[in-house]
Amino acid sequence: MYSEKVIDHFTNPRNVGEIENADGIGEKVSSSCGDRMKVFLKVEDDIIKDIKFQTYGCGAAIASSSMMSELVLGKTLQEALDLTNDQVADALGGLPAPKLHCSNLAADALHEAIKNYRAAKV
Amino acid sequence: MKRIYMDNNATTAVRPEVLDAMLPFYREHFGNPSSIHWAGRETGAALEAAREKVAKLINCSPAEIVFTSCGSEGNNLAIKGAAEALRERGNHIITTAVEHPAVLSTCKYLEKHGYEVTYLPVDGDGMLDIVALEAAITEKTILVSAMWANNETGTLFPVDKIGAVARNHGICFHTDAVQAVGRVPVDVEAAKVDLLSISGHKIGAPKGVGALYVRKGIRLVPLIHGGHQERNRRGGTHNLPGIVGLGVACDLAGRDLPEVSQRLRRLRDRLEQGLLAAIPESQVNGHPSERLPNTLNVSFNYIEGEAVLLFLDMQGIAASSGSACMSDAFGQSHVIDAMGVDPMMANSAIRFGLGYDNTCEDVDRVLEILPAIVKKLRDMSPFYHERDAASVTA
Amino acid sequence: MKRIYMDNNATTAVRPEVLDAMLPFYREHFGNPSSIHWAGRETGAALEAAREKVAKLINCSPAEIVFTSCGSEGNNLAIKGAAEALRERGNHIITTAVEHPAVLSTCKYLEKHGYEVTYLPVDGDGMLDIVALEAAITEKTILVSAMWANNETGTLFPVDKIGAVARNHGICFHTDAVQAVGRVPVDVEAAKVDLLSISGHKIGAPKGVGALYVRKGIRLVPLIHGGHQERNRRGGTHNLPGIVGLGVACDLAGRDLPEVSQRLRRLRDRLEQGLLAAIPESQVNGHPSERLPNTLNVSFNYIEGEAVLLFLDMQGIAASSGSACMSDAFGQSHVIDAMGVDPMMANSAIRFGLGYDNTCEDVDRVLEILPAIVKKLRDMSPFYHERDAASVTA
Ligand SMILES: Cc1ncc(COP(=O)(O)O)c(C=O)c1O
Ligand SMILES: Cc1ncc(COP(=O)(O)O)c(C=O)c1O
Ligand code: FES
Ligand code: FES
């Protein structure tokens, strides 16, 4: 039911972990299943220099987290803000219909982290 | 990579003796058993021989067996059929919160048609309180439907006590014994059961066949109207190969049950104890003793069951999260939920259903692989890290 | 003694290619297609491949196919399911007097539940009058159920005209195509069908599997409530080997249909003409041209069909009297009855259903044997002798 990309990112998730003294931390809990994702950012000159995540969730949630982190590492904050849930799902080669909501966690948590980073800077 | 199948509560492989017995009925003896010619006579005899075998396993008379296409059909036929036949006497049905979807959604359907349904709760072990059952009975109660063994946890209900209560009140008693038949001794007389559902593919018979025990004298409106097959209780041309297979599977189950159930219990206990010892903050869901010998439902806190299953699958190990139904795998299990298990613990529940072909090596391989999977997923889980932080702070 | 099977309208042998395709799904690929592990993925793909094959044969999309356990289940699901789903719009159902018991007894059942059913008559050839159908439609009509091909006579209803009438009136149209699919071209688009029942064992697939075509957008209350299988339209673990077999049988039927139907038609015509020529006062029951190519229903006045069948059986020839159901064999056929056939003629009706394996020699053997059987029985029959006497007197 999962694409090879999903399985790959699920099996070997990129950027799992925590950043000490992160510049921004964001979090999202799925309203439909209670699954949860946490994103840690290191930002320099508006560029995401490092990103780590922790996810409590299904295969799709973990793969989405990993894919998201890969997609935005080294990108500007604006580019990261433009990332949508659909783009994450597409990059994974699609998700089964009942699993589409799982990709929401990733982009939402990322955007939350950026928001918190910006709020802290002000 | 060796494949290890531990999802026998979802479905089993057909046993070789069963398949051998079925094969002649596809091309050689393929007649319709309702026909009067040679082709029908051959299969007619096989049909009745199979009926006797099924009857023997559950201690009823052959005429009380109605062949169906699956356990779900049996549950629908029993519940809708009895509810309609008994409608004049009342409209109240008692069932439990942990039944299979084939029972629960049938009851929900009947609620739309003027029936009232009580869903009895279970305790933390998934056990039914017989006092609660007694208390739920009203003058209008016409049917009790309570499963023999739970498919997700393996918890065994006290069917004989339920049967005695129902009989005392003159209430019809249906039990979904799809997981029980062939795995634990099932005797419809001892348990005072009136209707009992069986599914072939859980006990080494093929998919596409099942049976419903209907106690003599119990009236039932058919679910599948049609010809005169099955004494007017189920229309449709008989699935002869499947029925023959079910007969042989029941025969084998009756013969092997004591030995196989002991062997599987030992394997299951080894798996259970090994996992609990190797993985902290894990727990068994289900009754400690009153449980199917082949079933282990176990939770590993802080992680998600589906993720565990995927990693197991990549190593060739097939297990499941409760109901075999994929869509259910995404939500929470209604069974574990009804047991009042903490939601995060509940979310990590996975089920091992051991089967005839499993070996000690299979168990040891799971014991070798699973702790590392849990560790990997916990390392990824924010809840797990927060727990560490919390305990460090404390 | 060579056995000759000519009861293919009752049931067929499984075709060798079908059985071969099924075999791996009993012990090797036995997983539940709803499971997420390897064992489920293997079978999940096979399930959908079979669905595509069935869909292709009747020109629908795979999502419109619901797998069932038999034709009778399909008829029950279609009629009860649509009747209930459309209950707010009306309570009137139109069917015909010559439907299979699975349709007729379902309609009788619905009559007890507030539905009104019109049973349209047929003419002497068993043909439906499309004008009578139009005339029967009321504001409350929600469903028309009319079979594609009659199982006893082979008469083909003008399904496309029925479909056009139903569509014009916005009425749901179900057709029992159990005898038609695989024997004549069936196209749900051309015929404007909304629901169509298929049974595997009539076309070289095994017993225990069938399908219901459900046009996209048609609402249906499930008959077998349960898990999320078949998009919530049919609960129960999929009968994978059976479903795979049905897929292959549909594939073969689509490929071979023109050639096989022509071959069987030639054999059938040879049998028909031979019998009519050899046996005076015999007649064909059914439409002269609009008829299944494999079916011959023939009456030999003054004698009883069952006696003919018994003698044929003793010579190894399997034929039947209309419905496969033995209990029916003793009463009169409701189909021949509805055609207004003289009762004594009707009582002698027997049905030959030719099949894939029949040869010209088979036909010639029947032609060799049957006239003598009829003669023997007529010699025993008082009616026959009285007729002789009457004609002598006249
Ligand atoms: C026209 C027709 N409809 C329905 C059925 C029932 O099919 P099944 O035996 O698969 O239930 C049959 C065959 O018996 C039939 O000939
Ligand atoms: C307890 C229980 N009841 C009913 C069923 C339904 O059986 P089937 O899949 O044969 O319809 C199952 C299995 O899925 C089950 O475990
Ligand atoms: S099911 Fe919750 S994130 Fe996938
Ligand atoms: S005498 Fe036997 S059926 Fe009439």
Automatic annotation (TrEMBL), chain A:
One of its GO terms (biological process) is iron-sulfur cluster assembly. Residues 1-120 form the NIF system FeS cluster assembly NifU N-terminal domain. One of its GO terms (molecular function) is iron ion binding. It holds the Pfam family NifU_N. InterPro entries: NIF_FeS_clus_asmbl_NifU-like (IPR017787), NIF_FeS_clus_asmbl_NifU_N (IPR002871). PANTHER family: IRON-SULFUR CLUSTER ASSEMBLY ENZYME NIFU HOMOLOG (PTHR10093). This is Fe-S cluster assembly scaffold protein NifU. It comes from Syntrophotalea acetylenica.
Automatic annotation (TrEMBL), chains B, C:
The keyword Phosphoprotein does not apply. [2Fe-2S] cluster binds at residue 325. It catalyses: (sulfur carrier)-H + L-cysteine = (sulfur carrier)-SH + L-alanine. Pyridoxal 5'-phosphate binds at residues 71-72, 151, 179, 199-201, 237. The active site is at residue 325. Residues 4-366 form the Aminotransferase class V domain. InterPro entries: Aminotrans_V_dom, Aminotrans_V_PyrdxlP_BS, Cys_deSase_IscS, Cys_deSase_NifS_bac/arc, Cysteine_dSase, PyrdxlP-dep_Trfase, PyrdxlP-dep_Trfase_major, PyrdxlP-dep_Trfase_small. PROSITE patterns: AA_TRANSFER_CLASS_5. Its EC number is 2.8.1.7. Keywords: 2Fe-2S, Cytoplasm, Iron, Iron-sulfur, Metal-binding, Pyridoxal phosphate, Transferase. This is Cysteine desulfurase IscS.
